[in-house]
Write a structure and sequence with these properties.
Elements (H helix, E strand, L loop, with lengths): L1 E4 L13 H9 L3 E5 L10 H6 L3 E3 L1 H7 L2 E3 L6 H6 L5 E4 L7 H9 L3 E4 L14 H20 L7 E3 L2 E3 L3 E5 L3 H12 L3 E5 L5 H7 L3 E2 L20 H16 L3 E4 L14 H5 L6 E4 L16 E4 L2 E4 L9 H18 L1 E2 L4 E2 L8 H4 E4 L2 E2 L2 H7 L1
Parallel strand pairs: 1-2, 1-4, 2-3, 4-5, 5-6, 9-10, 9-12, 10-11, 12-13, 13-15
Antiparallel strand pairs: 6-18, 7-8, 14-15, 16-17, 18-19
Helix pairs in contact: 1-11, 6-7, 6-11
The protein binds nicotinamide-adenine-dinucleotide.
Nicotinamide-adenine-dinucleotide binds next to helix 6 and helix 7.
């Protein structure tokens, strides 16, 4: 079976296969082709891949011959015209915001797996790309903020006096938020955090941070552990409760997302105005609508001396490690369903992982949320 790893668009530094994983595909009996110079910018040269058994090909040839195509980002409409019917593509597909692509895949009878939709189960943990990327994103967010902030994170007691630690407030304590807290603590900052899911309080405390308690009434979470959307009244209570923590903070990192929906606006302009000039806000939800009023995707804005970072690809800031863990997620997914003896990928739509992450298969929608939205 032929598996192809195309080059990503220029702005994307992450890749979907690193040489270590190429060895594993070859050992499993795959014929692997890699688009020319796909990993060069990270120091993974074509020759490195070639020596390990890959064929280096032009993009068009890769698409025409492949049975499976893996990438970080979704393919273009033009790319899809080159792909064989019944082949499988695996990538972040953004299925709830790109109906055209999803329809196109269904009509062209291309099977597709969306890495955003890997279920949050123990069996699927090793394939969970949202988590592997959010973890590195949380780390990168803190480093970017500390670079922009003209203060040191740790407390320093020197002969010239005592420097007080910087204060970091993390809003949303999922995978990214937990890593942001851990990273800020390691750098010596004083850290506070808030999440609408009360279960998170213990995790925040175990990292040595303070949990900001705000009574917003009953909150719910899905079976997958995702927060459900708050009412407008609850959001207002949350904003009022966070006001003090925000105005005291040198850095705010927001990671609050609601799966499959627009992110809630939590930090409003009046809350930003109360912050000290020189403070920094990193809006990690900027790609899904933004938690911070006025944040702009892929721009650093300055408002009254406060910088609002809108980086939509924070994992890409640590692209080698992000590629390493993403390659692992993809390999583990394919390996789970690979029948090496018969050289077939067993795609069973009743499997609990595949029924979640398959968007299209044999001309039908599979994932229930996608089916509900587009049928
Ligand atoms: P996410 O990226 O969807 O959201 C980030 C965080 O924002 C969540 O903790 C959410 O509760 C919070 N949030 C939403 N609305 C908010 C608001 N108005 N104010 C403040 N916070 C708000 O979530 P995620 O990081 O993908 O993880 C969600 C949960 O799933 C976590 O508990 C995580 O540990 C768990 N998880 C489990 C598995 C597994 O079991 N295999 C894998 C990954 C994650």
């Amino acid at each position: 079976m032929k598996i192809f790893f195309p080059k990503e668009a220029m702005v994307e530094k992450r890749i979907s296969i690193t040489p270590d994983f190429l060895k594993k595909y070859i050992a499993n009996g795959f014929q692997v082709s890699i688009e020319k110079s796909m990993g060069e910018h990270l120091g993974f040269l074509d020759d490195n891949f070639k020596e390990l058994g890959a064929e280096i090909v032009e993009r068009k040839k890769g698409f025409l011959e492949a049975d499976i195509i893996c990438s970080v980002n979704k393919l273009s409409e033009e790319d899809l015209t080159e792909i064989k019917e019944n082949s499988l593509i695996v990538s972040f597909l953004d299925p709830f915001n790109d109906q055209e692509l999803v329809e196109n895949l269904r009509v062209k009878k291309i099977s597709s797996i969306s890495m955003e939709l890997i279920p949050r189960t123990t069996r699927a943990q090793k394939m969970d790309a949202l988590s592997s990327q959010a973890n590195l994103g949380g780390y990168a967010a803190v480093l970017i903020a500390s670079n922009i902030l003209s203060k040191s994170f740790p407390m320093m007691m020197t002969a010239a006096g005592t420097i007080s630690p910087s204060k970091v407030f993390v809003v949303g304590v999922g995978v990214a938020g937990l890593q942001a807290i851990a990273t800020a603590k390691r750098l010596g900052a004083k850290v506070e955090a808030f999440d609408t899911r009360p279960v998170v309080e213990e995790q925040v405390k175990s990292l040595g941070a303070r949990f900001v308690k705000i009574d917003i009434g009953e909150t719910e979470e899905t079976a997958q552990g995702y927060a459900k959307e708050l009412s407008e009244e609850q959001i207002n209570l949350q904003r009022a409760g966070m006001k003090k923590a925000c105005s005291n903070s040198d850095v705010i990192i927001t990671t609050a997302q609601v799966f499959g929906r627009k992110a809630p606006v939590i930090i409003t302009s009046d809350m930003i105005e109360d912050m000290q000039p020189g403070s920094v806000i990193v809006d990690m939800a900027v790609g899904t609508g933004g938690n911070v009023e006025g944040s702009v995707p892929d721009e650093n804005l300055e408002l009254n001396g406060i910088t609002i970072v809108g980086n939509t690809n924070l994992p890409g800031e640590v692209a080698i490690h992000a590629s390493q863990v993403y390659s692992a997620n993809i390999f583990n997914l394919i390996d789970e369903f690979w029948d090496q003896k018969n050289s077939i990928l067993e795609i069973t739509t009743s499997d609990e992982i595949l029924s979640g992450c398959l968007v299209t298969h044999k001309g039908e929608f599979v994932n229930s949320m996608v089916k509900e939205r587009y049928s």
